[in-house]
Write a structure and sequence with these properties.
This protein is α+β, with helices and mostly antiparallel strands. It has five helices and four strands. It has a domain of 115 residues: OmpA-like domain (60s Ribosomal Protein L30, Chain: A, 2-Layer Sandwich). It is 42% helix and 13% strand.
């Protein structure tokens, strides 16, 4: 009897998950993590192998930087190594690396810093064997914060390079 209840509960949870609309704005659920969902609906993002959600869940989709820095940390290096392995597994996938900053600093300064961050992540991926032709970069500076707010935590989350499947 308890296995029947467990099976029914699981089926209800799956139905409830399918009824929600997946976030389609950023392609990422949180720092280094992706959401899970069901694909196949016209206009809905794909959640299968080689998708943005697969990258986020298996390798992490973003690396973080210290204040006013584009230096790759040891933690970022590990994430980029996983991303390189993932990209080698899916040789037909191309990505764009988005460089981002927190809200402090001028627009021009943050665009330049975001570009350095995106290029730093790209350079590591190329050094790890990912063809540069599969990687593009863009800087958003402080224009696309991952986390709204002016706290130290928000600043830390917004100093990143996000890898987006094209």
């Amino acid at each position: 009897m308890s296995s029947r209840v467990a099976a029914l509960s699981g089926a209800l949870l799956m139905l409830a998950a399918c009824s929600s609309t997946p976030d389609q704005t950023s392609g990422a659920g949180g720092p280094g993590m992706g959401g899970a969902g069901m694909g196949g609906v016209s206009g809905a993002p794909s959640y299968g192998p080689g998708s943005q959600q697969d990258l986020a869940a298996t390798a992490g989709d973003r690396v973080f930087f210290q204040f006013d820095s584009s230096e790759i940390t040891s933690e970022a290096q590990q994430i980029l190594q996983r991303q390189a392995q993932w990209l080698k597994r899916y040789p037909n996938v191309s990505v764009t690396l988005d460089g981002n900053c927190d809200e402090r600093g001028t627009r021009e300064y943050n665009l330049a810093l975001g570009e350095r961050r995106a290029n730093a992540a790209k350079n590591v991926l190329v050094a790890l064997g990912v063809p540069a032709s599969r990687l593009s970069t863009i800087s958003y500076g402080k224009e696309r914060p991952s986390v709204p707010g002016s706290s130290d935590d928000a600043y830390a989350q917004n100093r990143n390079a996000i890898t987006n499947v094209n």
